[in-house]
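Explain this protein:
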Amino acid sequence: VTLCDFLSGEGYDLEVVATGQAAIEAITGRRFDAVILDLGLPDQDGLVVLDMMHAFDQGLPIVVLTAFTVPDKTIESLKRGSVGYLTKPYQHDELRAVLAHAVKVGALAAKADQAQTALLESEDRFKAVVESAGEAILCTDSKGCIISWNRGAARLFGYEHEEIVGQPLIRLMPSRFRDAHVRRLEAFEG
């Protein structure tokens, strides 16, 4: 049974290419759940192709399946981000397990990307709401340093964003409240 027949029989949709250049072109044209990459390509070193694929899509799970059994190749491919390294002749059960793991890794990477995008969009919306508010809004970190400041705060306190961000909040407080604020910060950190 050829590799293509085995994978088709396992229910995978395949796109087979014969060169490293064709592999790079394929991943730039569509999204794949996983890639099986041979290091012995006719046009270039498979490790270079691995690097190029990850430069294009860092979350793309790549399984190396090759006749190279040299430990340097194995270790180097894993250092460069492959999720598995199988040597020919391969065992069907081993390939099945490694490929299933690679697909799961790819799905997790896609979910992480979606969550990152949603978080960035949420942060952008939050910043837009804060900036457009007429009231003074400022945020501090756990040490009491100002980390964000809107136009309303600039009007109220008379400092521009660049002047105040990174400064301690106590700079804006009346002196009679400063000691109590410092004690609360210390209690919060402790």
Residues 183 and 189 are 10 Å apart (CA to CA).
